[in-house]
Amino acid sequence: MTQRIRELDGLRALAVLAVLAFHYTLGTPLANRATGLGWVGVDLFFVLSGFLITGILLASRSRPGYFATFYARRTLRIFPLYYLLLAIYIVAARVGGGPQPWGYWAMHAAYLSSSLEHFRSWNFAAPAFVYAGVTVLWSLSIEEQFYLLWAPVVRWLRTTRLWIVLGAMLVAAPVLRHAMHTRWHPEYRFLPARFDSLAWGAVLALAMQTWGSDPKRLGLALAWLGTVAGLGLGVLLAMTGGQRQSLAFATFGYSALGALFAAWVGWAVLRTGNGGLLGRGLRWGPAQALGKFSYAIYLIHYPLLLLVGGWLRPWLGEGAGAVVVRDLLSLGLTLAMAAASWLWVEGPILRFKDRWAPARGFPIELRRAQIRTVEVMVSGESV
């Protein structure tokens, strides 16, 4: 049986809602400890990407057209909207800004911001919404470089060596974060220091390939993983408040988040179609829509927030009521534009992508009351 795992779209919805809550309340009277942790939505996106991408690669590594199919699909999914927005930012910056070094734009065009910005700063001036737009591109940089590097690794290494590589990534990333941490937490956007979130997703995909025929064993492992990671994260939150400026959280917090989110993703896959409250919530229609539109929402929500805020501030001021009005209008505009992007840009391209370069899913045998096979199809993966 071939099906899309709708619960994963629900998790995407949770991820993008967390990011929205973070940016919509940042620096306002509505900010609190919960919204201040909304940046963790990006880590959930990373785990989802690591899981889905590794599953695709594992399924197709012995098939013809491995690299061509994978990179063609990634290009058609990510590039069109990304470069459309980047072109808008370049034009707006040239018209309304100051110095515009082309090297800065070339860095973003090549998805290198998660590496190069750590080593140099740029004399760059632009309207506020342009700053907001390019601010979120670092995570796309990390993911694109992961796609580029990870595909050859999965293709050419045996499974036992993949486990070794993933283990090394899980250990090396927190060590690197500890070594490079400052109060400005530069490690947060630095590719090698964030590989463990993607690696946790890849570990889950590999575990499902290895132990997918024994869902009880896999479910027990996920339960232990989620429990240990959740307890560790709880201790870190109590000690540090989840502040990225904290050395302890910078070192171990992202690792705990990656492990916890991997357990969530694994649970969602193992419980596909379950009638429980959580499963129904993840499959709820609005959650499915948010998950479907999450890529566009993520890319456009922050610049639209600053544009709407700039328009409203002279009339409404900056109190809590004004923030609520700004956020509601920004959310409505973001959802409308994301839906339009899906209807006229992303959707048509995805349909072409599925005809031109069909996806390879990976089979997972799940034994519940009876044995059945679910093939995870990722033709609509969002990030």
Write up what this structure looks like.
The longest helix is centred in the last third of the chain and has 37 residues, at 320-356. This protein has one domain (2-376). By secondary structure, the protein is mainly alpha-helical. It has a 3-stranded mixed beta sheet. Helix 3 (40-60) crosses helix 12 (247-270). The protein has helices at residues 6-25, 33-36, 40-60, 66-96, 102-109, 113-116, 128-135, 137-156, 159-180, 195-211, 215-240, 247-270, 277-282, 285-292, 294-316, 320-356; strands at residues 2-3, 362-367, 371-376. The protein has 16 helices and 3 strands. The radius of gyration is 21 Å and the shape is globular.
Task: Please specify the SSE layout and strand pairing.
Blueprint: E1 2-3, H1 6-25, H2 33-36, H3 40-60, H4 66-96, H5 102-109, H6 113-116, H7 128-135, H8 137-156, H9 159-180, H10 195-211, H11 215-240, H12 247-270, H13 277-282, H14 285-292, H15 294-316, H16 320-356, E2 362-367, E3 371-376
Parallel strand pairs: 1-3
Antiparallel strand pairs: 2-3
Helix pairs in contact: 1-3, 1-14, 1-15, 3-8, 3-10, 3-12, 4-8, 4-16, 7-15, 9-10, 9-12, 10-12, 11-12, 15-16
